Structure formats: C-alpha cells, structure tokens
Amino acid sequence: MPRFDPHPDRRPAVITGASSGIGAATAEALSAAGHPVILAARRAERIDDLAAKIRAAGGEAIALSLDLAEPESIDAFAAAAIAALGPIDVVVNNAGEVVPMTGLGADPDEFARSVHVNLLGAQRLASRLGPTLVAQGHGDLVFVTSDVVVRQRTHMAAYVTAKSGLEGLCRAMQMELEGTGVRVGMVRPGPSSTEQGTTWTEETVLAVMAHWERWGHLRHTGALLPRNVADAIVAMISAPKGTHLSLIEVQPEAPVLPDRKVN
C-alpha cells in the first residue's frame, strides 16, 4: 500500500502577497478551482475583505497576517496556517516589492531588506511548510519570479539580485526534491499591471523609463493583467501527476497594429 494518497481531493493552498495584484487574483482563481485558500499579506484589512468575498462565493478562505521581512512573523504564520486548514498542499510564494535603487546608490540596509522580502523570506516560509509536503508525498511549491532575471533592468538592483537568487534557489530545490512527489515550479512574469511600482514618484518613473528605453526594455505598451499570471499559476498546480511544469514564462502580448506586416 502507498504511504500517501497521490491524488488528494483536498489541497489547501497558501498564497503570499494576496492583498492585491497577482496574489489576490491567484487566491480567487485557486478557490474557483476548488482549493481551500489561506491569504497572507501585511495589509490585514485587504485580505480579510478578500477572504469574505471568496467565502460569499462559496469558497473556503481564511486571512492570516504575514510580514516576510520578519522571521518571527513567518514562523507564526506557518504554524497558524497548518492549524487552520490542516496539512498544506500548495504554497505560492508571490509576495514581493520593488523599490527603485541602484547597486552603488542603494543604502545597504534598504538593499538587504529588499532581498530579505523577495528572497530570504520566501526561503524561510518554504522551509517551514515544505517538509510537510515531503512527508505526505505530494504537493506544489510555486515561486513567482520575474523576467528581470533574464532581462535585467537598471534601478532595480536589489530586485534583480533577489529574483535571480530566487530562481537559483528553485533550481536547487527542484533537484533536491526530485522523487519526493513534491514539485517546485517557477512562474516568471514579464511587465505586469499591478500595484508594484505605484509608490514611485513621477520624476523617478520618467528617469528610469529613459534608462529602460535605452536598453531596449520598452518594445511595446502591453502589460499583463494579474489574472493572466494567476492562470499560469493555476495551470502549474493543476498539471496531472507525472507532469512537472518547472518554468512558465508569461509575457504580455503586444497590441495589434493595423499596418503590421511580416516580410
């Protein structure tokens, strides 16, 4: 007899950064697909409202506060999540922040904090929840990275550093967990229309855009909607056993130009 059910009907899912953007869209999409969901974020009021919305639609959802910059918060959250919904089967590490800073101009403490939120916090959460997945012999660890890993941008030095490290961590974990029944996947979005970057001043945006244009990062005006990335996350988690979608890169489609010709 197998030591675990390889096809569990109940797959509780943790989604970090669930207060807005990709995280919120993913929580709703996973709930619609039948997953009980735990919404995690610093903005407690927002995730409380989203959890209530999901429950009103017939889903199972709870909201738990989480600050990935604080190790104590991560440890407390992991214990509370397991206590709330039992063994977790899906962890979507989505939370992150983008602060404009350069490699030389960044305050080292601010640089370190950004790396902690975008990389070290994700590793700590995975280390707290992942062993349960291994013990039960199934589950998905999904990390939302960024195309800055392969298309580096100026004035995002800490973010580029953290997301590059996150993909390195994922690659190592994919090898370490092969044969355990636990899949580790990366969803790598391109330019997206989310709340990230909305705290930047207009002066900063204009200055940075000039640099990005110089390096060819502004080919068109298309941007991903949060639900576009959420759909990719759901596809990764929903892949049948025996299938491992190790990396999904999602890019925005360019607006169609009426005079576009292919020679």
Describe this structure in words.
This protein is an alpha/beta fold and 263 residues long. The chain has one domain (13-250): Rossmann fold (3-Layer(aba) Sandwich), CATH 3.40.50. It is built from seven helices and seven strands, in the order βαβαβαβαβαβααβ. It has helices spanning 21-32, 44-56, 71-85, 108-136, 157-176, 202-214, 226-238, and strands at residues 13-16, 37-41, 61-65, 90-93, 139-144, 182-189, 247-250. The protein has a seven-stranded parallel β-sheet, with helices on both faces. Helix 5 links the parallel strand 5 and strand 6. Helix 1 packs across helix 7, helix 3 runs parallel beside helix 4 (108-136) and helix 4 runs parallel beside helix 5. The longest helix has 29 residues, at 108-136. It is globular and about 50 Å long.
What is the secondary structure topology, with strand pairs?
Blueprint: E1 13-16, H1 21-32, E2 37-41, H2 44-56, E3 61-65, H3 71-85, E4 90-93, H4 108-136, E5 139-144, H5 157-176, E6 182-189, H6 202-214, H7 226-238, E7 247-250
Parallel strand pairs: 1-2, 1-4, 2-3, 4-5, 5-6, 6-7
Helix pairs in contact: 1-7, 3-4, 4-5
Q: Helix-strand pattern, N to C?
A: EHEHEHEHEHEHHE
Uncertain runs with pLDDT below 50, 5 residues or more? none
Percent of residues in helices: 40-55%
Q: What proportion strand?
A: 5-15%
CATH topology value: Rossmann fold
Mean pLDDT: 88
Number of helices: 7
- Please identify the top-level CATH class: Alpha Beta
Overall geometry: globular
Number of strands: 7
Question: How would you classify the helix and strand content by structural class?
Answer: alpha/beta
Largest sheet: 7 strands, parallel
